[in-house]
């Protein structure tokens, strides 16, 4: 079983990365067929950078690689959940997770 890369025009599948030990959501990125295969082959996360329009090996420059423990696919085969052992922070800001900022519900335009 593999993701349905043809479901979206750009061939990108949303990929949620979770720390396998803490269960903390670390980041969300996109994989295309090539980055998915590179991830399977190397057992480390690879993504497609939409801003740079190129393949991106997580941690290639920072050293904060992510060793893959498991990959799960959702029921529609169009979203991945990747469980990793991170070698450092996931966020380019140095935070453990890219999700480090809270939004106050009463000030977010809700009722």
Automatic annotation (TrEMBL):
Chemical reaction(s) catalysed: 1-(5-phospho-beta-D-ribosyl)-5'-AMP + H2O = 1-(5-phospho-beta-D-ribosyl)-5-[(5-phospho-beta-D-ribosylamino)methylideneamino]imidazole-4-carboxamide
One Pfam family from the record: PRA-CH
Keyword Amino-acid biosynthesis tagged: yes
Comment on bound cofactor: Binds 1 Mg(2+) ion per subunit.
Parts forming coiled coils: none
InterPro entries: PRA-CH, PRib_AMP_CycHydrolase_dom, PRib_AMP_CycHydrolase_sf
Keywords: Amino-acid biosynthesis, Cytoplasm, Histidine biosynthesis, Hydrolase, Magnesium, Metal-binding, Zinc
Location in or out of the cell: Cytoplasm
Annotated family: Belongs to the PRA-CH family.
HAMAP family assigned: HisI
Subunit structure: Homodimer.
The name this protein goes by in its record: Phosphoribosyl-AMP cyclohydrolase
Species whose genome carries this gene: Secundilactobacillus angelensis
Gene of this entry: hisI
């Amino acid at each position: 079983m593999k993701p349905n890369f043809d479901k979206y025009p750009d061939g990108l599948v949303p990929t949620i990365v979770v720390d396998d030990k803490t269960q903390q959501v670390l980041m969300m990125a996109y994989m295309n067929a090539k980055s998915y295969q590179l991830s399977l082959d190397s057992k480390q996360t690879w993504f497609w950078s939409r801003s740079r329009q190129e393949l991106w090996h997580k941690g290639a420059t920072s050293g904060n690689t992510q060793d893959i423990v498991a990959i799960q696919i959702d029921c529609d085969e169009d979203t991945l959940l990747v469980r990793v052992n991170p070698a450092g922070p996931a966020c380019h800001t140095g935070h453990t997770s890219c999700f480090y900022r809270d939004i106050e519900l009463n000030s977010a335009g809700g009722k």
